[in-house]
Every structure is written in structure tokens, then in C-alpha cells.
Amino acid sequence: MERSCIRIPAFIAGSGTKRRYGDGVGEKTVIGLILFPDATQLDLTAPYEVFARIPNSEIYIVSDTLDPVRTERGLQIVPNTTYDTCPTLNVLFVPGGPGQIAAQHNKKLMKFIAEYADTPDVFITSVCTGALLLGAAGLLQNKKATTHWSCMDILPYMGAIPVNTPVVEDGKIITGAGVTNGIDLALYVAEKLGSKEVAERIARQVEYPHISQHANKAHTEQLSYELLAANPYRKARLEAARETAKQLGVSIAL
User: Fold this and answer.
1) Is 38 in contact with 76 (CB distance < 8 Å)?
2) Out of 5, 86, 128, 151, which one is annotated catalytic?
3) Residue 91 is part of which domain span?
4) Where residue 195 sits, what CATH number does that domain have?
5) Residue 72: C-alpha distances to residues 109, 146, 219 (Å)
6) Is there a domain that residue 252 lies in?
7) Residue 128 annotated to the active site
8) Which one-letter DSSP state was computed for residue 111?
9) Could you list the pLDDT tens digit for every one of the 254 residues in the chain?
10) Contact (Cβ atoms closer than 8 angstroms) between residue 183 and residue 46
């Protein structure tokens, strides 16, 4: 059976000339997501969706080569850079999945992760069993961390201190729990890089309640209005819907 294939371009959201952590505007923030065979697809693509919406972010999918990589359930993703050619990152992200076991023996991948241990101005992040790769690279010794619930008992083997919460920050290391917690992790990083407002806007865009539910109703409604007004597809979708209504004989009260 032929499998689907996602080709990821280097993605730049927004533009600008200045950048400092915490202002949410200015020069690009370079984010790299590691990709290895049999990674859990959602571990990678859920955070990608959030990261790509951070203002002035430049996103890279990093792997051994530029060849398509088969994820755990068969979806293939095409990297856009390699461990040898990847630019210096502001955020390094590592997914999990059953492929994590073999990835731990990929010397080039593990070296790539380990080299960021002493790199200043970088967040080293993971979700699910990606934390075990951080641990194998020696980054979790005496660090608080989380991972998939089924592997919490493995973290001490890495010298880590297990903490059973969706997101754990300890210095430059930020880890997320299993699979869908990658969204929580990425929103947490979005707030660290930009602001609470940046994270709330992204959460509202992707209709993710775990962040946006904390905003009061009036704020959420105002935010929704602003996002609708700025949506470049809204007018075209409305026009297409009106044409459909005309074809179906549906009357809409304006």
C-alpha cells in the first residue's frame, strides 16, 4: 500500500528586523524538530503546527538525509535539512515513539543533541519518549523531567527526577508528557519566546482549550474577532459558502 508523504519546506512565520526573547517580534527564531524512523507522527506534527504559528519563527525538520522518513503508523515526512547542514537553533525539539530505541544508537543524531547542552540561548525540548533520547545524550542528569506515562519509571535510569505533569521546565530543558502533550509543550515554549498573548492567540487559532480556557469570555470573544478580521481566507470561504447556499436554495438571513 502506498503511504502518504508530507514534504515540509523551511517555514518562516512573519518577518522583522529585531529579536530578543520575550518580545514576540523581530528577527527569526530558528526551531528544529528531529525526525527519525518510526517516530510517533503526532509527537512531531502537533508541536510543528504550534511552532509554525509563532511570530518570526523559522522551522526545520532535521534528519540524517533529505529522504522521506516513515513514521510509526506509515505516514512519511520529508526533512528539509540534515544534521550536517542544519543552522544553529534557538529551540531543539525531540519527539518520541518506538523508533526512539534505535535512534539512541544513531551516533550522528545523539551527537547533534548533545552538542546543544553547552549552547547558550537555546531551549532543548522533547515530548513523550523523546525525553529518553535527551537522557541518553546526558542532558537529564539531576534534572526534573516528564515523559509518556508508561516510561516514567525509566527516567531515573537517565539520572532524571520524574515529575508527573504535562510540561516540566528545568533550566534550558523543557519536557512534555505523552503524544498530545506536545501541543501543551509547544504553547509553553511559545509563551517563553513571545508572551502569554502569543500562546493564547495560537491556542485559539488551533482551538485548543487547555490554554485558551483560562482566558475570560470577553477576552476570548475579542481575540476571536481579531483573528477572524485578520484571517486571509475568511472572505473567500464566505463567498464560496454563499455560492453553495445559492446552489442549494438555502436562504441565509444577514
Assistant:
1) no
2) 128
3) 5-215
4) 3.40.50.880
5) 18, 21, 40
6) no
7) yes
8) H
9) 445 666 655 554 543 323 333 344 457 999 999 999 999 999 999 999 999 999 999 999 999 999 999 999 999 999 999 999 999 999 999 999 999 999 999 999 999 999 999 888 899 999 999 999 999 999 999 999 999 999 999 999 999 999 999 999 999 999 999 998 999 999 999 999 988 889 988 998 898 875 544 455 556 666 666 767 777 777 787 778 778 777 878 887 76
10) yes
Residue 83 lies in a domain: yes
Dihedral class, residue 134 (left if φ above 0, else alpha if ψ from -120 to 50, else beta): alpha
Q: Is residue 239 part of a domain?
A: no
Supply 129's cell numbers: 519518549
Size (the chain), residues? 254
∠ at Cα 117 (113, 120), nearest 5°? 120
How many domains does the chain fold into?
1
Q: Which amino acid is at 159?
A: G
Residues in contact with 50: Cβ distance below 8 Å, sequence separation at least 6, in sequence order? 183, 186, 187, 189, 190, 202, 206
* Locus of grid cell 527564531: 29
CB 145 within 8 A of CB 12: no
Question: What is the rounded distance in angstroms from the CA atom of residue 29 to the CA atom of residue 211?
Answer: 22
In a 3-state reduction of DSSP, which class is residue 76?
Answer: strand
- Per the listing, cell 526551531 goes with 31
